[in-house]
Structure formats: structure tokens, C-alpha cells
Amino acid sequence: MFFVEKRFNYQPDLPTSITCWSYTGMVFLFSMLLWLEITVFQVYTAIVFVIFLIAAILQITRRKIVLEDDGVAIKTVFSMNAKKISYDDILNVEVEKHGLAFTTKYQKLSVMMKRKQVEKLYETLENNKKVRV
Q1: What is the pTM assigned to this prediction?
Q2: What span, in angstroms and rounded, lies between the C-alpha atoms of 28 and 103?
């Protein structure tokens, strides 16, 4: 059944999110440290702060779950880590407290999402009857 490609924003499971955002936070703290230690404005401070902004924006905007005709594509910050799960491989989809969990033949993949997006994604998968939910 053909349907319009739908996109949902997500963050990885809690341990991975904590690790990624901690490294991003360290870049921010480094830029603040440069700013406070060197009392006059330096180009280095601005450069490190811009690097922080770019890293934060990339982590927020590039992580998407895309429903396609043949499966669910889980896009990551770096495209080499992206996953594609065929609808036939998905055994179960569970709504969790702060996200959704896909159980496949090979692994269980958890993602964190906003409650409304979890409900929309779960409903979309259920309505299309492509996955045994």
C-alpha cells in the first residue's frame, strides 16, 4: 500500500542520548570557559560556540524516523549509522513511557519521542496493518 512518506523526530535511547548530549555540553562549557578566562572577546570563543550550535542543531534535526513504502528508516546524525527495518522484520512495536520500542528478528531498538509523535507513529503503523502491533 502506497502512502505519503511520514517523518517523526526522535532521540536515541536514554544512555546514548546522555552520552551524545554530554559531549555536546562539553563543547558548550569549553566555549564558556574560553569566554570567561580570556576577558576580551576572542575569535576562538565564537568559533567554539558556533561548533556547539552546529552540533546541537545537527543532533536535533537529523534524527528522524521515516515511514517508507517498504519499511521504517531510522536516520541518524551520520548517514553511515542509519538503519532500515523492513515491515516484515518487525515483530512488535511497543509504546514505552518516553518513546517507542521496535522489536525485530535480530534486535530491540528503543527511541525517545514526544508523546504526541509516539501516538501518531503507533497509530499510523496500526492503521496500515503493515506491522503486527
Answers
A1: 0.79
A2: 36
